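Why show two proteins at once? Because comparison is the fastest way to build intuition. When a single record is shown, students tend to memorize it. When two are placed side by side, the eye starts asking what differs. So, the first record is below.
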Amino acid sequence: MDYLTSLGQVDAGKALLLVDASIQAYNAFDPSQPAVCQTAKVTAPAAFELVDSWTGVDAIFGDDRTLESYGVVFRSLSAPYAYVFAFRGTASILDVLDDLGAEKRPFVPYDSAASVGGAEVEAGFYDIYTATDGKKSMQAQLFALIDKYHASERPIGQLHITGHSLGAALSQLFTLDLALSRRSGEHTSELQSQFRISYAVFCLKK
């Protein structure tokens, strides 16, 4: 996992793509229909198409479970296929309450056999990522999408993960999880105005 340490290392074209994707993730959410991805309001970035979306569960104090649309996937129109997973940020009152969570949760990768050295993360973000309302958790949905694309006729050539605010925190959880649970392949993560999510320092080598 590599980190950018100066503006000179930033690919401007890629940065604009990921910012646009993050904005579209917000456009996909409507508080009056929180669980429904508003595809008609989403405009795919140039040379990309909208292909999927996913949900997460706002679980306040472990109860009051509300399903919300949390992100969208864009795929490039030509090979090698680039996929962008874009997480939206805070857009509902329940999201705000999750943002304020101060409890800790042990981080458990999707592949539970992977080791994270005792890392703990903020409970509100982690609950959105792993909670279920009887259907698949956000975590399970994301890995199902990754596995589906890898097995498709348009396999992942490049994978970009992005998000703003709460979405940056969720995208960091997914990036870590992906690095631990699916070690093959390369991916980049662009985090915008990110919350602190971790209570332990971790370092990954691929």
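Second record. Ask yourself what differs from the first in the token line.
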Amino acid sequence: MTPQPIAPDQSEVLLRVIEAAPQVCRRHQFFVWTQGDFQRWLPHKISICGSYDRDQRDVVFDIFNSIPLPDAVVQGLRSIRSDIVQAGLTAWRKSRSQAAVLSLRRDVLPQPLSLALLELGYDQIMVHGLTRPGRADELESFFMFAQPRAEYGEATQQALDMLLPCVHMAYQRVCVTERQMGQARTGAQAAATSRASLRLTGSPEK
């Protein structure tokens, strides 16, 4: 793929996206970040984001969509074993771990999930990812971007190539923050339950 020149106004867009990224720590902040200048750099209505979870020892996916989607589609896109995610991984690996375009019509066998997306106007999906440090065959993160009737080309692939490190770092930070907050809430709830149990049994608290 031959690098395409970037217009000055687009360079400013990319700079603003990168400058805003360090403020992204929560799931809702990630969604808001991808709806501003990010859209001018990489237009999309759906983003499917995966990150390796060391507790589950697998890549766990989440979906961010700015327009409504059927629940079955949302749940299907959250699974690493779905036909679309697997086809996206295959397309990415065939491109030697560079940004790639997945076509649902061309690259995915007709299945309920892909047919539902095609009916909604989705065909092309931009995909990209990173492998775990020192483990080239294991994913660290994976991203898929789509919008209805999109025609993604080399310019869009280059845009995602340039933005990937920033997206990766922002989403990793979100995953770590959300996990820590979830663990803190679980710990607080367990402590509250324990205190309530002690009060009911009349046992003295230590």
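One difference worth noting in the second protein: The CA atoms of residues 125 and 190 lie 43 Å apart.
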